[in-house]
Amino acid sequence: MPKRIASAPFAPIAAAALVAVALTACTSSTSLTTKRTQGYEISDSAMQQIRPGQSQQLVTLVLGSPQSTNTFGDQSAWYYVQTKVQQTSFGLNTGLERTVLAIYFDQNKKVVDKAVYTAADGRVITVESRRTQSFGEDRTFIDQILNSFGG
């Protein structure tokens, strides 16, 4: 008479354990929030390579093209902005920190100075909500018609 293996009672337990392990692996690898960098990744080694007297071409080779430029008379500045954000699985972004690397050039396109600015260096600016009214904005359509006849 052939021997019967008593594996039938253990099969549901083994299947449940396998499913639990698979689900645990899935949930531990995905998080509800992720941290990432927007803009430039400003590394310390790249900033150390930028020194006074270097050309704009060398700065472009080390850091890439600037995100923004500005010219003040005979001096110009290049700005590299790095923003670290936390993004939820639902698409909501929260800014964690922002760093701006400013590189200043003279009229010969040589580096004069560099500066790193953070949120602590910024100022809060209140946006003015008042508007200057334009001609006819206060009048209704009927008022404008009546005023066109001199009344």
Automatic annotation (TrEMBL):
Example of a GO biological process term: protein insertion into membrane
Signal peptide: 1-22
Record Gene3D superfamilies: 3.30.1450.10
Cellular component aspect of the GO annotation: Bam protein complex
Keyword vocabulary terms for this entry: Cell outer membrane, Lipoprotein, Membrane, Signal
InterPro entries, sorted: BamE, BamE-like, BamE_dom
Occurrences of domain Outer membrane protein assembly factor BamE (ranges): 39-112
GO molecular function, one term: protein-macromolecule adaptor activity
Protein name according to UniProt: Outer membrane protein assembly factor BamE, lipoprotein component of the BamABCDE complex
Organism of provenance: Devosia crocina
